[in-house]
Design a protein that fits this description.
Strand content: 15-25%
Order of helices and strands: EHEHHEEHHEHEEHEHHHEHEE
CATH architecture of the largest domain: 3-Layer(aba) Sandwich
CATH topology of the largest domain: Rossmann fold
Radius of gyration: 19 Å
Number of strands: 11
CATH superfamily of the largest domain: P-loop containing nucleotide triphosphate hydrolases
């Protein structure tokens, strides 16, 4: 009998953080780092989900979440065979919610919760592209957030956008500062600025911005860029965090995560100092260590 899969919500309390693009590319990276041995469902909880539909070239899709809820299959205890019903790219599948409104979701909230459990029983990993906003105002988003095992939380480049907002869920696996704008000024000690730990920083990528504008993201995942290298490190960390790593993959260190050269690696710290700070020391280092700064740049 297959064990239950895991569900991860990719969320940001504000818009324009590159959340949807990151959720898609993260799904592809996780597929790659697990040797394509797992099936991943990318689930959009943000209504029209136009961006992901373009990426998956799905107009219209074969099935939506509300279609499954409407037929009552999950509520009746019937098993679903979604593999042939959903649009996909390799072993990354997509489902959204195009036609359901708040009243429908509220009425069938138990059915949606059952559907979330069904997703986890069918797929090894479910990645939810959450709607942006403080403690999701979108009802479907709130339901899926409650069913998620952990959250990947994206922070805006401008910390002032978070003033007065509740931007922490308490279930963050880690945080990502995604540099979607080409700003030359580098923030010092961002983990202290945002008051978070386990912070990854993704560099600005002009090529990614260009392909995003051209609606041609399908080809970006195959390019060798600094952004892709850093995202590969995040994917590997998440794979081990969720117990999804394929047999034979080594525990992530600096060299394996692809973080070297991204500004997330510090040299020359005493190993005891780093371990005391909660950082992971790369394998093979003795007194003087290299370390992936999961808590941010120091």
């Amino acid at each position: 009998m297959k064990s239950m899969g895991r569900m991860v919500s990719v969320w940001s309390s504000v818009g324009k953080t590159g959340k949807t693009v990151l959720a898609y590319l993260l799904a592809l990276k996780l597929s790659d780092f697990t040797d394509n041995k797992i099936r991943i469902l990318l689930c959009c909880a943000g209504g029209k989900s136009g961006e992901l539909r373009r990426i998956f070239s799905s107009t219209p899709p074969l099935v939506e979440m509300e279609d499954i809820v409407n037929i009552g299959a999950v509520s009746a205890g019937e098993r679903l065979n979604l593999y042939g019903m959903l649009t996909r790219r390799n072993n990354v599948y997509f489902i959204g919610s195009l036609r359901s409104g708040p009243a429908f979701i509220s009425r069938y909230s138990d059915a949606y919760r059952s559907l979330a459990h069904e997703f986890k029983s069918i797929f090894d990993l479910v990645i939810v592209d959450m709607p942006s906003g403080p403690e999701p105002e979108n009802l479907l988003g709130r339901l899926l957030l409650e069913e998620s095992d952990c959250v990947v939380n994206l922070l805006p480049q401008d910390p002032s956008l978070l003033e007065g907002k509740l931007f922490k869920t308490g279930r963050e696996a880690f945080w990502i500062l995604n540099r979607v704008e080409d700003v030359t000024q580098v923030m010092e000690e961002p983990e202290k600025v945002y008051d978070v730990d386990r912070l990854f920083i993704l560099p600005y990528c002009g090529r990614l911005a260009e392909l995003h504008r051209k609606k041609a993201l399908n080809s970006y995942a195959f390019l060798e860029t600094e952004f892709n290298s850093a995202l590969g490190g995040i994917a590997r960390e998440l794979a081990f965090e969720l117990g999804l790593a394929a047999d034979g993959l080594k525990e992530p260190g600096v060299e394996e995560t692809g973080l070297a050269g991204t500004g997330l690696v510090a040299e020359g710290y005493e190993e005891a100092e780093l371990e005391e700070k909660g950082h992971k020391v790369a394998a093979g280092k003795s007194r003087k260590a290299s370390v992936a700064l999961l808590g941010g740049i120091r």
